[in-house]
Design a protein that fits this description.
homodimer; Creatine Kinase, Chain A, domain 2; 2 domains; eight-stranded antiparallel β-sheet; two-stranded antiparallel sheet; 12 helices; globular
Chain lengths: 360, 360
């Protein structure tokens, strides 16, 4: 599979019609692994990095799960192609700006990806639309086991998997979900939720991880601790916290409908009107408007079939995807024009909101 | 004619389909007149005011132009009814809050109105949609002459008509137009224009006269001087200034289209989207959105037939009119809901903007 084929194919997250989950948009697990007797990527010399890259590219792309997928040296991708992979949550921003000698393997269905020589030799990731820790864990566990038959992992019986950064030591697992929490944001409760989640040992980040903002009221919530607990224990603990957040979001929605329904309808109606008629939309505003439409779908104001449209647009309205449709490199201002065009076209097909259906 | 009949009938300004004028929405002239040998209203005792009111009501309502119109003591109208007359530019805010013994006569077609015992004994006004000083002057001149045959005006051969406030002395004429100047506002040139107009001896005010704001980019421009020049001279001088402003507004529109067409389309498109889908609109926002639609009509983005709709809504979205549709007294917040309902209903019938028709 070539990169342009991969880009042309829908990402796992652009087809969420199957996912009826109102709050959890995506479940993701990544494992950090390193090869024994090889220096971590940050300390390795160019030749050592290339050696690891060669071994890992070969081993990972030979896995059943990765068959007919993409396997490339990062430096063979253009900036725009890398940007698109970041926007699909398949690789990290750090990998794009890292040293040479790094690589990427992505499964054909875009649900599994492995970064080679990012912070660790191997960063294995599996993601799925919706709230699906069991399925995701089974998949990544199988990939991890299969890979372990081919390469010798750096492992300490006492500490567990060794990683470049001590915060990942042990299970080296990061389990996370991408959550859509518009009612908690609108009602000003998000700060309180973040504080509580942090106290429970979980991290809350924006859409594209650490340091990114939460446009679209989308948050990534993940475990912080990797040591002293089994993978299953970590996922169970996280799931408990996530269920509480889901409940709080649903309560907040109920309160909005009870107390300030017209204010909410006004927000959703305006979002629809602007998406259908705007000519200049930056990506932050687009995300926030799409978020209100997604909330409208959850409330029954728009048909459930529109969820797949909105979730696809959350990704397609990112700068790299907007850029990609266009042959020439576009400036931010031109991208806002192209984004407006995309959204007008898509929303011309979305019927008007019907608030008489709003869930009470 | 009773007040409820008058309110139910369209105002002169709610039917501007005939007026193709893009910039001048309304032309208006008012004359201040006082009866000889009677103290000005502000100095008169209650009984003297009542005496003047009786004489004037009788004299004014007997005029041909006022036949079958409304003739009432102001105190016989409810607050809401007075508010509606203010919003139709038929009476002043000052009259509503004034002392007792004042009255109103309005012609059946709502183009002529006479306030009795406002600041002066008589404030005669004629208004017409569009830029029509000749027609308006001929009408008001005839009313003035006819009235002079019935009452004895306070007049000094040296000073002209005597008025309660010295700024009106002489011709006691105020000629004004209501101008729609969105491009001058958008391009930040309005302050400069106001300064220049003031230097030419003209006044610039908001939609409802002195001290009101210019929501909807609507300004009233009128003469300041009433002494030392004939009525025709004053109107000619004002017309010259207005023509310059029209030219500047049209130039500003051309520049917006040339330089920042997409920004302008974005503003107009969003305005349309919000009017079609908003649930809460205060009157200031509604005016500003309608202003953008009116600009769109001038640019050919919407059909010319929509001008009558927008000009009607400029008046119907004012608080008194919104309130009137509703039986119970509504608070500002409830009025915003009712305004949203009115605008959504009206704009559901307005076809989408077509920017391929935008005038260049």
């Amino acid at each position: 599979m070539k990169i342009n084929e991969l880009i042309a194919a829908p990402s796992e997250l652009t087809d969420t019609a199957a996912s009826k989950s109102a709050v959890v948009m995506m479940t993701r697990i990544r494992l950090a692994r390193n090869l024994a007797s090889h220096p971590f990527p940050g300390w390795a010399k160019e030749a050592q990095r290339r050696d690891v890259l060669g071994r890992c590219l070969q081993a990972v792309s030979s896995l059943t799960q990765m068959k007919r997928g993409l396997a490339v040296d990062t430096s063979d991708l253009s900036e725009q192609e890398k940007q698109i992979l970041v926007e699909r949550h398949l690789i990290s921003r750090e990998l794009c700006h890292g040293k040479g000698g790094s690589g990427i393997v992505i499964s054909k269905d875009q649900s599994c990806s492995v970064m080679i020589n990012e912070e660790d030799h191997l960063r294995i990731q599996v993601l799925r639309a919706g709230f699906q820790f069991k399925k995701v864990w089974n998949t990544i566990n199988a990939i991890d086991s299969d890979l372990e038959e081919q390469v010798d992992y750096a492992f300490s019986p006492k500490l567990g998997y060794l990683t470049a950064c001590p915060t990942n030591l042990g299970t080296a697992i990061r389990a996370s979900t991408m959550m859509h929490l518009p009612a908690l944001v609108i009602s000003g409760q998000m700060e309180k939720v973040v504080r509580a989640v942090n106290q429970l040992g979980m991290a809350v980040r924006g859409l594209f991880g650490e340091g990114s903002d939460a446009s679209g009221s989308i948050f990534q919530i993940s475990n912080q601790t990797t040591l002293g607990e089994s993978e299953e224990g970590i996922i169970k603990h996280l799931t408990g916290v996530l269920n509480t957040i889901i409940e709080q979001e649903l309560n907040a929605r109920e309160k909005l409908i009870e107390g300030e329904a017209t204010k909410l309808y006004d927000k959703i109606g305006r979002a629809y009107g602007i998406l259908q008629n705007g000519y200049l939309l930056n990506s932050g505003e687009a995300m926030n408007l799409l978020s209100l439409i997604r909330l409208g779908i959850d409330l029954g104001v728009f048909a459930d079939s529109q969820r797949a449209v909105v979730d696809r647009l959350f990704i397609e309205c990112q700068p790299g995807h907007i850029q990609h449709g266009n042959k020439k490199a576009a400036e931010a201002g031109q991208r806002d024009v192209l984004r407006g065009e995309l959204l007008r076209t898509e929303f011309a097909k979305v019927p008007s909101p019907d608030f008489s259906n709003a869930a009470k």
